[in-house]
Design goal:
By secondary structure, the protein is of the alpha+beta class. The chain has 4 helices and 5 strands, in the order αααβββββα. This is DUF3450 family protein.
Length: 260
């Protein structure tokens, strides 16, 4: 009885051990699946993270490029606005220039007659003035008339030459000038030194310093001066030529014409 029982116990123990072993095998399969699933999840997560990192980097690059494009756009807009302002200013300047060009013909029509009148007035003035440097002054006027009728001289240059002639005549009014020439008296030619004190008075003295004359604006003739003025005339001529120190001297002057 006891032997049977021991065998029975042994058999029971063997059956239990086998059952336990079988149960462990059964449990082991689901755990392996869980581990595999977990590994797959980690792998997928890692792959997803790589994609996220890649997209993030791309997004950052795009944001940087957008910033550059935006800056370039603002710079381009500012430059375009600047150029547009320059173009507008140039167009306004061109319009003013064109207006000036359009007015040149009208200006020419007014200036040309004026220049001829100025030369006529200058010629009349020289004819009525004291006859100092007469040949030089008349030659200057003659050349002005020739220049006015010359096509290859610009209008501006013609006007400048006329103003220069007027300026020279103006300077004659406050300068003391001396020149050597010939004086016609009683059908004779006498070599003399002519001297004028601006437009106040005009004198002549023979080169031997023995005779002197004063031009009379009313009679257009030469009046002989008293010999007492010879020394002063000589002194004035030397001063005008820079050959003597400045000094006082007394000479007669023509009487002022009565007002008409």
């Amino acid at each position: 009885m006891s032997k049977v029982s021991n065998r029975t116990k042994i058999a029971t123990a063997l059956i239990g051990a086998l059952a336990l072993a079988g149960s462990n095998l059964v449990v082991a399969d689901p755990l392996s699946d869980v581990q595999k699933a977990d590994a797959k999840i980690h792998a997928d997560a890692a792959a997803s993270q790589k994609k996220v990192d890649k997209y993030y980097d791309q997004a950052q690059d795009m944001a940087f490029e957008y910033g550059q494009v935006a800056d370039t756009r603002e710079s381009t807009k500012s430059y375009n606005d600047y150029v547009a302002g320059l173009v507008a200013d140039q167009e306004a300047t061109m319009k003013l220039i064109q207006d000036d060009i359009n007015g040149v013909d009208k200006l020419r029509q007014g200036v040309v007659p004026l220049m001829f009148k100025m030369v006529d007035a200058l010629e009349q003035f020289v004819a009525l003035d004291l006859p100092f440097n007469k040949e030089t002054r008349e030659t200057r006027i003659k050349r002005l008339r020739e220049t006015l009728n010359t096509a290859n001289v610009t209008l501006a240059e013609k006007y400048r030459l006329i103003l220069d002639a007027y300026n020279i005549e103006r300077e004659y009014g406050y300068k003391m000038n001396v020149e050597t020439g010939k004086l016609q008296l009683d059908g004779k030619e006498i070599l003399v030194d002519f001297i004028n004190f601006g437009r106040v008075a005009y004198y002549a003295q023979s080169l031997d310093q023995k005779s002197a004359w004063m031009f009379n604006p009313e009679t257009k003739a030469w009046d002989k001066l008293d010999d007492s003025y010879l020394r002063n005339i000589t002194k004035a001529i030397r001063q005008a030529r820079g050959q003597g120190a400045p000094d006082m001297f007394a000479l007669p002057i023509p009487a002022a014409e009565a007002a008409q």
